[in-house]
Design a protein that fits this description.
Blueprint (H helix, E strand, L loop, with lengths): L1 E8 L4 E8 L3 E11 L7 E6 L5 E4 L5 H13 L9 E8 L10 E2 L2 H11 L6 H14 L4 E6 L9 H4 L6 H4 L10 H15 L4 E7 L3 E7 L2 E5 L21 H9 L4 H10 L2 H6 L5 H9 L3 H24 L5 E5 H6 L1 H8 L11 H4 L6 E2 L8 E4 L4 H14 L8 E2 L1
Parallel strand pairs: 1-6, 3-15, 6-8, 9-12, 12-14
Antiparallel strand pairs: 1-2, 2-3, 3-4, 4-5, 7-8, 9-10, 10-11, 13-14
Helix pairs in contact: 1-3, 2-3, 10-11
Bound molecules: adenosine monophosphate.
Adenosine monophosphate binds next to helix 10 and helix 12.
């Protein structure tokens, strides 16, 4: 049995989960969130499996102060001593071409991580702050890095290269990397478990950020996000694929800076931009039912974006065996799932409307005679991070029957 702390460090938030890992299953014993790091009114909230929640309001100037506080709370609740912690697993946003799997962090790895984080100018630094803080607070503990991009390192060249001059890739590393890899990996493993085979899967991670991935026999062969997580399908507030000349045109003709156009494409576009200010699908569904024409158009665009990618990936995979929905919208919105599946009858998808009303739980939502299965699988990136960390530090292979309690 090992206790593993999983960290997801953002620029102004830090999420953590404490797992107890056994040989064939694991339990989450604590879940925490630090909010408004580096801002006013910051706080830490930790909830427990067997203990009342702890909420502390205090200044949180940086990640090290946050983690010191988190470790203190854990020591006064579910751990007798911090030495009970076996390892810390970190979510890392980018592994570049260096990392096609999770790794134990040492000096060499850290150098490559620092190098790679330059590819994520907006959020890269925060991931590294989490690692540095733990190195300082718990210098002897093993740390593992789990990369959002690693799962997509199996993409073939024709899928990951852009049609730019080849030196842009060779010298400047500009290529499709893809993101949400830990989530796509988790749901495709779960789908293979449910179906009893690993085939041609299309996984739709539809959250505030969203991506679609083509998976053959457990390996990513193409994915909609690209060099950055702004590419691919339209998202909550990100624009997804647009004509590459548009940002240049706006800068030139509307006298906007690169930062302003960047903010517009990432924070003011997508469902939010198209609907006139609504990025949450629950609000959009209500507004569609009330006949709000902008909301209807935004949802139509969203569904159209997704079915176009599914059609393209069905071509890439020579047909599909299963379509998987995950993340906030994919897991919860029967409204969006139905709109997508209704356009995919030609692929052999038959949605079971009763089953589709289930939400937030693992379910097969296609009819028993549907040639292509449709699955809803709540994602669990933290579990993959805990499991990879456990496997790496214990240097042993996971038993097949491993399950989440
Ligand atoms: P995520 O980024 O995976 O946390 O997903 C967040 C998004 O999921 C929200 O912006 C909503 O659009 C969507 N969402 C969450 N809960 C529901 C729900 N019950 N019904 C429909 N959409 C939901």
């Amino acid at each position: 049995m090992e206790k593993i702390l999983v960290l997801n460090s953002g620029s102004s938030t830090l999420k953590c989960q404490l797992f107890t890992m056994y040989d064939d299953y694991c339990e989450v014993i604590a879940k925490g969130l630090a909010e408004r790091i580096g801002l006013s009114d910051s706080r830490i909230t930790i909830t427990f499996k067997d203990h009342p929640p702890v909420i502390r309001h205090l200044p949180l100037p940086d990640h090290e102060v946050v983690l010191k506080e988190v470790l203190d709370i854990l020591q006064h609740t579910v751990l007798h001593d911090i030495s009970e912690l076996s390892a810390v697993g970190h979510r890392l946003g980018h592994g570049g071409e260096f990392f096609n799997r999770s790794v134990i962090i040492d000096e060499q790895v850290m150098q490559k991580i620092n190098d790679t984080m330059e590819l994520l100018p907006l959020h890269g630094a925060a991931f590294v702050h989490g690692i540095n803080a733990i190195t300082h607070l718990l210098p002897k503990i093993s740390q593992v890095a789990v990369f959002d991009t690693a799962f997509h390192q199996t993409m073939p060249k024709e899928a990951y290269l852009y049609s730019l001059p080849s030196e842009q890739y060779e010298k400047h590393r500009i290529r499709r990397y893809g993101f949400h890899g830990t989530s796509h990996r988790y749901v495709s493993e779960m789908a293979a478990d449910i179906l009893g085979f690993n085939g041609r899967f299309i996984s739709c991670h539809l959250g505030n950020g969203a991506s679609v991935t083509a998976i053959r026999d457990g390996q990513s062969v193409d994915t909609s996000m690209g060099f950055t997580p702004a590419a691919g399908i339209m998202m909550g507030t990100r624009c997804g694929d647009i004509d590459p000349y548009i940002p240049l045109y706006i800068m030139k003709h509307q006298n906007k800076t690169a930062d302003e156009v960047n903010a517009m494409m990432n924070k003011e576009s997508g469902l939010f931009g198209a609907s006139g200010g609504f990025s949450d699908v629950r609000d959009l569904e209500k507004r569609c039912l009330q006949g709000d024409s902008k909301a209807i158009t935004a949802v139509d665009m969203y569904v159209y974006n997704i079915i176009k990618y599914i059609g393209a990936y069905a071509a890439v995979l020579d047909g599909i065996d299963a379509l998987i929905f995950t993340a906030g919208i994919g897991e919860n919105s029967s409204f969006i799932r139905k709109k997508i599946c209704d356009r995919l009858g030609y692929l052999g998808i038959k949605l079971d409307e009763n089953a589709n009303h289930r939400r937030g739980e693992r379910a097969v939502v296609s009819t028993p005679d549907s040639p292509v299965k449709v699955l809803v699988i709540p994602t669990n990136e933290e579990y993959i991070i805990a499991r990879d960390t456990y496997d790496l530090i214990a240097n042993r292979r996971r038993k097949k029957s491993f399950r989440v309690a």
